[in-house]
TrEMBL record:
InterPro entries: ARM-type_fold (IPR016024), Initiation_fac_eIF4g_MI (IPR003891), MIF4G-like_typ-3 (IPR003890). GO terms for cellular component: eukaryotic translation initiation factor 4F complex. Residues 307-429 form the MI domain. Belongs to the eukaryotic initiation factor 4G family. Residues 197-256 are annotated as: Disordered. It comes from Petrolisthes manimaculis. Keywords: Initiation factor, Protein biosynthesis. One of its GO terms (molecular function) is mRNA binding. This is MI domain-containing protein. Gene3D superfamilies: 1.25.40.180.
């Protein structure tokens, strides 16, 4: 700091300030990492509860931002275990409650920054929720865990050709049923067909005796049928015109006439609830029934916050690693509805905001493509971005170039008129007045790198926006800083 104050060269002083900012960020992360390590040592019973209570007291006494951030991380890491141990002793529990009340008093103080308030609020909310986290913390995973995550909670696979999800277990049952049809029998139900399936699998000599008795009963019963029904009975008679039970068609010695095959196939179709044209082929009927079952298996997964986060992490991680845009769009279309895709936007932004430039631009291109293909409504894009954009000032503490990073993500959306410039300006409303103009200027600047300054200048001119309305003072200096002077030159 002394070196910065003593420096008179503006350019060198700027470099020293950037270096100082980098070192402060690095040291903060190092401190947080060390205190988390202390919490894990306590989990492994390598440190005692009195030692942990002394650490908490010291951090509260320092009362500076770095110490309070370390305290929040420590309580998040081992707060549950420590509270359980404190409950065994009244004095320890009293000290524990007093420390948490002190933390709450600091949180409500006017001197506390917004970022630190949110950290302390998360810790206190975590305690009220019995130390159950709202979402799982990202940790390194083994290959087995990654595979389990891909299949977590569902036996679903994707039919990429037809764009549907299929329940494997139900599909196996369907296939097994129709394999049984092919090799053994057709399971018919209802009046007049109960014995036909038994004949298909063959009958012994005892079955023949039962059939003869059944035929004699049917003959006496046939005289009581109405005229139309007798005609139907004659149509299904055996050789010689003698009335015969339809079940006799299953015997090895008698082959049913072709007309009766048609009526039996029609019954099979009704049994499996098919809605298709009549077919004279059992194989065609079977194929149609399977396709109908597949149609019934189209589902939308439940869309609570945890499910949405898991689905988003899987899609974005795979997309940014293998660059398969088509597969990513297909997965998004299958897993998210038009009114829940805002969760995909939110968790994608949260994941990519502090990644490298290549991944941010890839996510921006993905947003642009799914908007053009009507998968992502613009209102859902804006709504899903609100939470991340509202925390821009807090992010800037750890990510000084967060405005540029947001520009890289949203700039591709201007391409092909996927999102108009006015809607992008509306999107930045969540940022807040202090950083709104900065984020919007970064979006315009990054769009010029993608589409060219002339094209962006034409879009700017047709939008009716004016920098003087966005940046009331020092407009020229602002435009020069963010390299968007071309919009005024046009």
């Amino acid at each position: 700091m002394k070196e910065v104050e003593a420096c008179e060269d503006p350019n060198k002083k700027l470099q020293l300030l950037e270096k100082l900012d980098y070192e402060e960020t690095r040291m903060r992360k190092l401190s947080v990492g060390n205190i988390k390590f202390v919490g894990e040592l306590y989990h492994q019973q390598m440190l005692t509860s009195p030692i942990m209570m002394r650490i908490i007291r010291k951090l509260l006494e320092k009362d500076d931002e770095e110490s309070l951030e370390c305290l929040c991380k420590l309580l998040t890491t081992c707060g549950q275990t420590l509270e359980i141990q404190c409950r065994t002793q009244a004095k320890a529990m009293s000290n524990w409650n007093r420390h948490l009340k002190t933390l709450e008093r600091i949180m409500n103080g006017k001197q506390t920054s917004s970022r630190l308030k949110f950290l302390m609020m998360d810790v206190l909310d975590l305690r009220r929720n019995n130390w159950v986290t709202r979402r799982e913390e990202e940790k390194p995973r083994t290959k087995a865990e990654i595979k389990e995550l891909r299949d977590d909670g569902q036996s679903m696979v994707t039919n990429t050709k037809e764009g549907i999800q299929i329940d494997i277990l139900r599909l196996q049952n369907i296939c097994n049923k129709y394999i049984a049809v092919d090799s053994k029998e057709i399971p018919l139900q209802g009046h007049g067909y109960s014995q036909w399936g038994e004949g298909c699998s063959g009958i012994d000599s005892q079955d023949h005796d039962e059939e003869e008795q059944q035929q004699s009963n049917d003959s006496s019963r046939g005289s009581a049928l109405p005229i139309n029904n007798r005609g139907a009975a004659n149509n299904v008679g055996g050789p010689g015109g003698n009335p015969t039970q339809q079940g006799d068609f299953g015997s090895k010695s008698i082959i049913p006439p072709s007309n009766d095959k048609e009526s039996i196939i029609s019954a099979v179709k009704k049994f499996v609830a098919l809605d298709c044209n009549k077919s004279s082929s059992l194989g065609e009927s079977r194929d149609n029934s399977v396709s109908r079952e597949l149609e019934a298996l189209k589902v939308h997964p439940p869309m609570d916050s945890n499910t949405a986060e898991k689905l988003t992490m899987g899609i974005i991680s795979e997309y940014t690693n293998i660059s398969d845009l088509k597969e990513a769009k297909l997965c998004i279309k299958e897993k998210f509805a038009s009114n829940t895709i805002k969760h995909f936007v939110q968790f994608s932004l949260e994941w990519v905001i502090d990644r490298d430039s290549k991944r941010r631009k890839m996510v921006g291109q993905l947003f642009q493509d799914i908007i053009v293909e009507k998968i992502l409504p613009i209102d859902q894009l804006i709504e899903g971005s609100q939470e991340i954009l509202s925390m821009t000032e807090e992010y800037e503490i750890d990510i000084p170039k967060v405005c540029n990073y947001l520009g890289e993500i949203f700039a591709p959306c201007l391409n092909d008129n996927a999102v108009t410039l006015k809607r992008l300006f509306e999107l930045t409303d969540a940022v807040g007045n202090n950083k709104k103009a900065n984020v919007f200027a970064c979006i315009v600047s990054q769009a010029a790198e993608i589409m060219g300054p002339n094209k962006v200048a034409d879009i700017w001119k047709s939008s009716g926006l004016k920098w003087s309305d966005i940046v009331p003072s020092d407009t020229d200096e602002f435009l020069k800083k963010y390299c968007v002077e071309f919009t005024e030159d046009s």
